[in-house]
Design goal:
By secondary structure, this protein is mostly helical. The chain is built from 2 helices and no strands. About 7% of the residues have low confidence.
């Protein structure tokens, strides 16, 4: 039996049923893809973000050391040179460096 020989009511029902089935299939497919996206997001959150934070902390420490080195290089007064070592909270500067010799 061809669709042209059917009455309008059964033909409309088949058309809407086909559209409904396609919508249902697309909904299930979208939910499946969303669950894959969620698992990928959790994987990125658990593995990548901590390493990015550690890299950011390392970069900040490096920049602090560069600034401190530049300050020590530009200002050669002994009391000014000892001041940053006393007040620094940098993890790499726990102890004061040896004082430069003042022999001329």
């Amino acid at each position: 039996m061809s669709l042209r020989n059917m009455n309008i009511a059964p033909r409309a029902f088949l058309g809407f049923a086909l559209i409904g089935a396609l919508m249902l299939f697309l909904g299930v497919f979208a939910l499946n893809q969303m669950s894959k996206i969620r698992s990928a997001t959790q994987d990125i959150t658990l593995s990548s973000v901590p390493s990015i934070r550690a890299l950011d902390e390392f970069t900040q420490l490096t920049l602090r050391l560069r600034v401190l080195s530049y300050r020590l290089l530009t200002n050669r007064e002994p009391e000014v040179q000892q001041k940053p070592w006393k007040t620094s909270n940098c993890a790499t500067s726990r102890s004061a460096p040896p004082r430069p010799s003042t022999k001329s």
